[in-house]
Amino acid sequence: MAEGGGRAGPGSAGPNLKEWLREQFCDHPLEHCEDTRLHDAAYVGDLQTLRTLLQEESYRSRINEKSVWCCGWLPCTPLRIAATAGHGNCVDFLIRKGAEVDLVDVKGQTALYVAVVNGHLESAQILLEAGADPNGSRHHRSTPVYHASRVGRADILKALIRYGADVDVNHHLTPDIQPPFSRRLTSLVVCPLYISAAYHNLQCFKLLLQAGANPDFNCNGPVNTQGFCRGSPGCVMDAVLRHGCEAAFVSLLVEFGANLNLVKWESLGPESRGRRKVDPEALQVFKEARSVPRTLLSLCRVAVRRALGKYRLHLIPSLPLPDAVKRFLLYE
Fold this sequence. Notes:
- It comes from Camelus ferus.
- About 45% of the residues lie in helices and about 0% in strands.
- By secondary structure, it is mostly helical.
- The chain has a domain at about 20-140: Ankyrin repeat-containing domain (Serine Threonine Protein Phosphatase 5, Tetratricopeptide repeat).
- It is elongated.
- The relative contact order is 0.06.
- Residues about 1-15, about 175-185, about 220-225 and about 265-275 have low confidence and may be disordered.
């Protein structure tokens, strides 16, 4: 045991780290975790074995048990394991047999999150249809939307948006009146819109904006930008220019109503601009957009969408409006 009566550290367990992980994090005492056939079957996608095992009450009662399986290190539920491996048929079967879709592992990851991280669209869709939280868990610092935006998986991002995922990170933020452990942002890096631009994933960038992502996040959001590191971008447009994104990113932000006055770009000297590797065409588009007033048509579209709010944009197709107007409001 560690000094002072605390939990033993990994080093005290000798060479058998898996044994230590079982002792520290499994749902049951070590002697009750030896039978991992349910978890092993989920890992290899053996649906027939899952069917056979779950006919027995002893295994049905363990369907949400976190255990270390044959090839794993972190204690996980069978559903979490199947989602990681992308065995959609096993994911579906386990859910129908009573697996809880939003249980987290010791890292705070849900089954949906690991399905997204490993690029398994089918498993992600099955979990979403079963009611999985599209935002993942507040106990994990990343979200399914963030990861899909970072790696450019527009197909997965579409599915998450369709099931109501937060395209900003507001669900991870809490106002000052909340307890002191609530999180405050000190960088735009955690914003899905920012990360899609940083990795030059234009399709994901547009999908996020169409779904209502704040083009000015976070200057008019719940974040104090004075807490940002010196020299870091204070808004998405600033980040797009600094990361050398092509002109299409700038044009999209302009179309979706970004406040161009938030960027103090003209105050930076030529030397500073050079270090930031700004795309010349993108900078030209930005300058032109700021020098010319926006059309009334463009301003009206932005105003209507903001009045609806991002959580009601999906209702636009049901409005009693001409199809052309609805497509216009949806940027289609």
